[in-house]
Design goal:
Blueprint (H helix, E strand, L loop, with lengths): L1 E6 L2 E6 L3 E5 L8 E4 L2 E6 L2 E3 L6 E10 L3 E7 L4 E7 L2 E10 L2 H24 L1
Antiparallel strand pairs: 1-2, 1-5, 3-10, 4-7, 5-6, 7-10, 8-9
Organism: Sphingomonas oligophenolica
Subunit structure: Part of the 50S ribosomal subunit. Contacts protein L20.
GO molecular function, one term: structural constituent of ribosome
Length: 124
């Protein structure tokens, strides 16, 4: 399954397991981020509804892009300015699209609840 998400004013086509570089998003390395602005989703050539759909990603690192030199000059006026800029960005790994992660997480919670339910019965 793939999705097209919008973040930082740009659009990205993502699938589970992809790594993308986006504009800086708050979060430390290893934390989970949810991208909610889904424009399109589908599987193969078949499109799906995007209502309530979310993309879950894991922050791999916070980094800086290569330096860009900004040079300004006005001829015959002895005016020259040189500046450098390094844009901050975030590297994300897409973990799940839509309800894929919810399906995996639900049995774990159910198993934990049933284990908690069995424990008091064993004590009594």
């Amino acid at each position: 399954m793939f999705a097209i998400v919008r973040t930082g004013g740009k659009q990205y086509r993502v699938a589970a397991g992809d790594k993308i570089v986006v504009e800086k998003i708050d979060g430390d390395a290893g934390s989970s981020v949810t991208l909610g602005d889904i424009l399109l989703a589908g599987e193969g050539s078949e499109l799906k509804s995007v209502e309530g759909l979310t993309v879950t990603a894991e922050v791999i690192a916070q980094a800086k892009a290569d330096k860009v030199i900004v040079f300004k000059k006005r001829r015959r006026h002895n005016y020259r300015r040189k500046n450098g800029h390094r844009q901050q960005h975030t590297i994300l790994k897409i973990t799940a699209i839509g309800s894929e992660e919810k399906k995996k997480a639900a049995p774990k919670k159910a198993a934990a609840k049933s284990a908690e339910g069995d424990a008091p019965a064993a004590q009594a």
